[in-house]
Specification:
two-stranded antiparallel ribbon; 191 residues; 32% helix; alpha/beta
Length: 191
């Protein structure tokens, strides 16, 4: 199961040599007001939250893995809420939501509901950033982690149906924790 992978490998995963997605972070942050309230969904080891905090933003980091949350707390020196995406109850609270390589673990059938929770948590005009592994069929990687493997067209239709505005989806080649070549979708959308 995906969550047990992160609980069992939290220290290794959090301390891996990961290149910070600085360019994507800077684009996301530049669209927000100074000191904006940001929710990070799936903060992992906390590196992205640490970067946003260093830029003066009010960041609320969350992760579904209690063990990864502890690793992030060690890095950023503040509490990390242990929360699954579908447990998000906030309403009109955040200027931005950052979900780098986290929503890709949500089963396709559950994604509309999770995106509705995210949209509700954003203030009007609030920004969402999310990234997904591109593909055509749901599946698991060599570590047993579930991925929804979406196409840009499928994701765009889902967001449009959910009432999102100003949807842009870029595609890049890269890799993931497994070091296998990966096509990535990078989504920006507005409430």
């Amino acid at each position: 199961m995906t969550s047990s992978f992160y609980d069992e490998n939290a220290e290794i995963y959090a301390s891996r040599n990961r290149k910070l997605p600085t360019a994507r972070l800077d684009v996301f942050l530049s669209a927000l007001p100074s000191g904006a309230a940001i929710l990070e969904l799936g903060c992992g080891g906390g590196q992205d939250s640490a970067y946003m905090l260093s830029k003066g933003f009010d960041v609320t980091p969350t992760d579904g893995s209690a063990e990864l949350a502890k690793q992030a707390e060690n890095l950023i020196g503040r509490p990390v809420q242990v929360m699954r995406f579908e447990e998000l109850q906030s309403e009109n609270e955040f200027d931005g939501i950052w979900a780098e390589a986290s929503l890709l673990h949500v089963p396709r059938a559950d994604l509309p509901g999770v995106l509705a929770c995210i949209r509700r948590a954003l203030k009007d005009g609030g920004a969402l950033h999310a990234s997904f592994k591109a593909g055509t069929a749901e599946g698991h990687d060599g570590f047993g982690r579930y991925y929804n493997y979406l196409s840009a067209a499928w994701l765009s239709e889902l967001l449009t149906a959910g009432g999102w505005r100003h949807i842009t989806i870029g595609e890049t080649d890269g890799s993931g924790y497994d070091n296998k070549p990966t096509r990535w979708l990078h989504l920006q959308a507005q409430k």
